[in-house]
Every structure is written in structure tokens, then in C-alpha cells.
Amino acid sequence: MHPTLLLALRIVTGLGGVVLVVTTLSAAIRSFVLPRNEVVRLNVMVFVSIRSIFDLAAKMANSYERRDRIMAHYAPVALVALPVVWEALVGLGYTSIYWALGEGSWARCYELSSSSLMTLGTTDTRHTMVGALTYSEAALGLLLLTLLLSYLPTIYQAFSRREVTVALLEPAGRHAPYRVLPAQLAQPRRLGAERRPAVGRLGAVVCGD
């Protein structure tokens, strides 16, 4: 390959790796740190992809109970898959950066990136700049995992509140249409004071008031 063309290819690949790392880190921060709701396209792509797999598995189920058990694992699996995708994208981005800096072949750069990202230290480099990048990659890898582990209790509490709401509506699916137990929907304090208006409106709609 012509040296000028190879240099241009390395520059484009390096810039693409930087954009990939920054985009992934931004998605992680907006998902777990930003104190407001925001749609993150990267996360949406991950959830939609995993949802398609679960939908396919649910279609093969021969009963509603079986489909319900399958879909109950969708949200936890998608949540755990998020840091895996983030780590993979960060590793791919740093692999591109190492190759752009002339560290060696793609296999060598991938090995160095994986070793740094997982903090294994099995592969080393003699270049000072690349060495500094390996430390930053190791720090990002730990940061992504720490973000998820730190917010798992909060996410679990949100899922628990959702399950309580679903449990209150479960009798409606076991009886004839519109035969809901009004007493259960009339006790919003079981869900907490902050959910009283929503549960009250729900009871009014279902009971036909």
C-alpha cells in the first residue's frame, strides 16, 4: 500500500476509534449519572436487539405462562448486556487507536487492548504514548463496571415497584372482563405516597367510575 494512503487510513481509523470511545463513555454517563431521563440511541439499539431475540423465543412457547417466564428475563438480561457492549465498543475503539499509532498488526493491537481493558497486564508495549493509553483504557473499563454496580440497587428498587403495580392488577386477568377487586386498587398507600394519584386514576378507569 502506498505510504500516503496508509497514513491517511491510519488517521481516519484513529479518529474513528476516538469517536467510538467518546460515544460509548457518553452513553454510559447519560444512562447512569445524568439526573434526568434521556434517550440514548446506543442503549436503545442494545435493548431492541435483545428484545428481538426474546420475542423469537416467546413465539416458540406453547402457553402464556411460558411466554411470561421468558419475557420476565428480558430486562435483567438487557441490563447486564449493556456493560458488555460498552466494554466491547471501548475495546474496539482502543484497538483502532493502537493500530493508528503503529503498534503492530490488528491481532497485536486487539491483544493489547483486551489486556488493558480487563486489567490483565499480559501484553506490554514499549511506546510511551501507547502505554499511557493502556492505562486510560484500564481506568475506563473499571469505570464502566463501577457505574453499573453502583446503580444496580436503584434499578432493582424501580423494578420492584413496577412488580408491585403489576401484582395489584393480576386479579383482573384471572376473572371476567372488568371484574376487578376495587378494594385492592383503593389501597394506594401500599405503593407509597408518591404513587397515590396514579393508582387512584387507575382504579377509577378499571372500575368504570
Characterization of this structure:
This protein is mostly helical. The protein has two domains: 3-174, no CATH class; 175-209, no CATH class. 76% of the residues lie in helices and 0% in strands. The protein is built from eight helices and no strands. It has helices at 3-32, 41-59, 64-71, 74-100, 106-117, 128-174, 182-185, 196-207. The radius of gyration is 24 Å and the shape is elongated.
Number of domains: 2
CA-to-CA gap between the ends?
A: 76 Å
Total strands: 0
Helix content: over 70%
Provide the structure class: mainly alpha
Uncertain segments are: 176-185, 188-209
Strand and helix order? HHHHHHHH
The number of distinct helices, counting runs of at least 4 residues, comes to 8
Q: Taking Cα atoms only, what radius of gyration do you get, to the nearest Å?
A: 24 Å
Tertiary shape = elongated
Task: Name the average pLDDT.
Answer: 78
Query: In what range is the share of β-strand residues?
Result: under 5%
The major β-sheet equals: none
Protein name: Two pore domain potassium channel family protein
Transmembrane segments: 7-33, 39-58, 79-101, 132-152
Keywords: Membrane, Transmembrane, Transmembrane helix
Short description:
The chain is mostly helical. The chain has eight helices and no strands. Helix 1 packs antiparallel against helix 4 and helix 4 crosses helix 5.
Layout of strands and helices, then pairs:
Blueprint: H1 3-32, H2 41-59, H3 64-71, H4 74-100, H5 106-117, H6 128-174, H7 182-185, H8 196-207
Transmembrane segments: 7-33, 39-58, 79-101, 132-152
Organism: Hymenobacter humi
Keywords: Membrane, Transmembrane, Transmembrane helix
